[in-house]
Design goal:
The protein has about 180 residues and is of the alpha+beta class. Helices cover about 40% and strands about 15% of the residues. It has four helices and six strands, in the order ααβααβββββ. Strands 1, 2, 3, 4, 5 and 6 form a six-stranded mixed sheet that branches. A hairpin with an 8-residue loop joins strand 2 and strand 3. The longest helix has about 30 residues.
Length: about 180
């Protein structure tokens, strides 16, 4: 019985370390796909006040968006998001992003960002990395846009915080007429 408990404990420990290492690997793969210009927009120190600037409404944010990413960068960014969330959490985040298309139709694209871009844009979700992604040292990252704010901190190879987190929905019901 004790051998089984130790074996299961070791498997859980290895699984947790692999997940955390996988997360830092995904973050570093994402960062390596970025141009130097996009990297400067993405990386902040772990103690930067930007880490505490969280919101879930459409507004100007720091950090590049899918609008600025090529296919390789988009795939790497989504890989980091997927590695950070459960399957259901990832589905919810990407479904909420797609609701921006519905809002654009409902609102007839009347809402604009201060720079004139449409406020309802499924690609207008920002990525920020805080510190250097590492399976041993503290670092964090944020994925944020309209109705989604996900914040993560990893330390010693484990996600130690995934708050604040916000998932919202507008519209809450989508009617399909046909």
């Amino acid at each position: 019985m004790k051998k089984e408990i130790v074996f299961v404990s070791v498997l859980l420990l290895i699984s947790g370390l692999l997940k955390a290492q996988n997360l830092s690997e995904k973050a570093n793969v994402f960062l390596k796909t970025l141009s130097s210009e996009l990297r400067v927009q993405t990386i902040f120190s772990l103690n930067d006040e930007e880490r505490f600037n969280m919101n879930f409404v459409p507004l100007e944010r720091k950090g590049p968006t899918f609008n600025e990413f090529n296919d390789k960068q988009t795939k790497a960014a989504l890989g980091l998001l997927r590695a950070s969330l459960s399957q259901e959490g990832y589905r919810k985040a990407t479904d909420i992003m797609e609701l921006e298309r519905v809002l654009a139709i409902i609102e007839n694209n009347k809402f604009k960002m201060p720079d004139g871009r449409p406020a309802r844009d499924p690609l207008n979700y920002h990525f920020c990395i805080f510190g250097q992604p590492s399976p041993t040292d503290a670092w964090g990252w944020r994925f944020e846009g309209h109705h989604v704010s996900l914040n993560f901190v990893s330390s010693k190879g484990e996600i130690v915080a995934s708050t604040p987190s916000f998932y919202g929905s507008n519209p809450s019901i989508v009617s399909i007429k046909g």
